[in-house]
Amino acid sequence: MLLELVELSKSFKSGSQRVQAVDGISLTVDAGEFLAIKGPSGCGKSTLLLMVGGLLSPDTGKVLIEGTDPYALSNDQRARFRSTHLGFVFQQFHLVPYLSVLDNVLTPALATNLAEAKERANALISQFGLEHRLHHTPVELSTGEKQRVALARALFHQPKVLLADEPTGNLDAENSEIVLNTLKQFTQNGGCVLMVSHDDQAVQSAQKVLGIKDGRLQPHSETETLINS
Ligand SMILES: Nc1ncnc2c1ncn2[C@@H]1O[C@H](COP(=O)(O)OP(=O)(O)O)[C@@H](O)[C@H]1O
Ligand SMILES: [Mg+2]
Question: Under the GO molecular function aspect, what terms does this record hold (predicted)?
Fold first, then answer.
């Protein structure tokens, strides 16, 4: 089991009210699995993914990534664990605006051997057809190119778990296909993907699609569809 979520919950204070953004979500994702969670805006998708990614601590419940609870680690250990064990892809790319394509892909490199890291980053950048953009900054890239840089960065440490939050939300059809094919190929190579999206088209790339509403997974019998297997 690469990913295990046990009764995860998170609420936010909004004025005098509390919003229950995620309400008792449990699930597992195995090696080779591509799971998509589909639901409308505001139903808790991003909150769920941030918790899974070690970026937002849950009120209650547990996250296990390859058996490790990121919230049981110190802040430094958790940052390092995130960088080496998880890949993230977001709708808004979250590239560092003042760094070149090469340096953005190198941001997870930490203290590893720089020559080796550069070689790996260059190979990934070429794999995504961006070798001619190596020294450009994000503002000089198209949205599709930005997301390909984000994918290269996410894959830098060859993680086993990829998390994707509306990864095709800003992309044209061609780049959406590149992103979704990359996610599919990633699972075929033994990784797992957890993607959240409101987009019917995007979730069709997953092997399994669950619904989410008001922070809760929908009963399997109503929403689970097995598309590819
Ligand atoms: N940092 C926050 N502070 C207050 N409310 C939040 C915060 N993040 C999310 N929410 C609320 O939690 C609910 C779920 O949000 P979110 O997880 O972003 O949904 P989605 O990604 O499905 O659009 C929404 O009602 C949103 O307004
Ligand atoms: Mg969201």
Answer: ATP binding; ATP hydrolysis activity; transmembrane transporter activity
What's the CATH number for 3-226?
3.40.50.300
Closest CA to 56 of 26, 78, 23: 78
- 46 in contact with ligand 1, CB cutoff 6 A: yes
User: Measured in angstroms, how far is the CA atom of residue 45 from the centroid of ligand 2?
Assistant: 5
**Biggest CA-to-CA distance, the chain:** 54
Q: Give the Cα separation of 107 and 101 in Å (integer).
A: 10
Question: How many helices (H) and strands (E) would you count in the chain?
Answer: 8, 10
Q: How far apart are CA 8 and CA 17, in angstroms?
A: 20
Is the shortest distance between the CB of 21 and ligand 1 below 6 Å? Answer: yes
Based on the number of CB atoms within 10 Å of its own CB, is 114 exposed (0-12), middle (13-18) or buried (19 or more)? exposed
Give the number of the atom of ligand 1 that is nearest the alpha carbon of residue 198.
22
Distance (Å, whole) CA 162 – CA 94: 15
> In terms of DSSP bridges, do strands 161-165 and 225-226 run parallel, antiparallel, or are they unpaired?
unpaired
Residue pLDDT, tens place only, 128-173: 999 999 999 999 999 999 999 999 999 999 999 999 999 999 999 9
